[in-house]
Amino acid sequence: MSGRLPTVFLVDDEPEVLKAVARLLRAEGVPVSAFSSPREFLDQVDPEAPGCLVLDMSMPGVSGLEVQRALETRGCHLPVVFLTGRADVPDTVRAMKGGASDFLTKPVEDEELLGAVRRAIEKDAVLRRERAEEALVRARLETLTPREREVLEHVVAGELNKQVAGHLGTVEKTIKVHRARVMEKMQASSLADLVRLARRVGIGPP
Is the dihedral of CA 155, 159, 165, 169 positive or negative? Predict the structure, then answer.
């Protein structure tokens, strides 16, 4: 992990809303970075920055949904808390399908907004841990030989050593050796742990 403090990025074209939300969050000790236009935010955002985005849905030029899509194309996975002046069901559905963390209607109560921000920051932390684990598992996977990779795939599919040997045209003793090396390289403490690690990178049954 980078060790950077989670930041709440605010994007709203209404100065009063921007100032009020920033003041509220800073009073709670939360680092805030405020932007009065979506283009300003998109020009400066760091895709690796931890935290969340509090985003106005309806802004001139670039809408909140367009900002959400732009972040996705850049590989930025900040959870988004949408703020809107009107409850629009189609927009809400599109926002949630795009991975929005919350969708709040203005005027929003302080505690409701703070709760949404806390949930979004926690969601971001969980997703970052999951991505870090996946990257680690993929790095371990790269250390396997082609044959060890084959053994891994058969083992996590639930096959016994004898069955794996039959499929790969070798003897059970050889499979045992490969399997031990797979466990060591993948740093798996048990078969269940190996299956869990493999699933993290899309290997084996869901």
Answer: negative
CATH of the domain at 106: 3.40.50.2300
Here the tokens at position 107 are 């005027």
Structural domain of 58: 7-137
**Cα 99 to Cα 79: distance, rounded to the nearest angstrom:** 7
Per-residue model confidence as pLDDT tens digits over 49-89 = 999 999 998 888 888 889 999 998 988 889 999 988 776 65
Strand stretches in the chain, DSSP E: 7-11, 32-35, 51-56, 80-84, 102-105
**What gap in Å lies between CA 26 and CA 76, rounded to an integer?**
24
**How far is 54 from 161, CA to CA, in rounded Å?**
52
C-beta of residue 186 within 8 angstroms of C-beta of residue 151? no
Tell me the mean pLDDT in the region 170-182: 96
Q: What total number of domains does the chain contain?
A: 2
Residue 205 maps to a domain: no
Enclosing H/E stretch for 162: helix 161-168
Provide mean pLDDT across the span 146-151: 96
Point out which residues pair with 54 in neighbouring strands.
10, 81
Contact status, residue 85 vs residue 106, Cβ threshold 8 Å: yes
Structure tokens at 35: 């932007």
Per residue in 92-132, pLDDT tens? 666 776 678 888 888 889 999 999 999 999 999 999 999 99
Q: Is 33 helix (H, G, I), strand (E, B) or coil?
A: strand
* C-alpha span between 30 and 41 (Å, rounded): 18
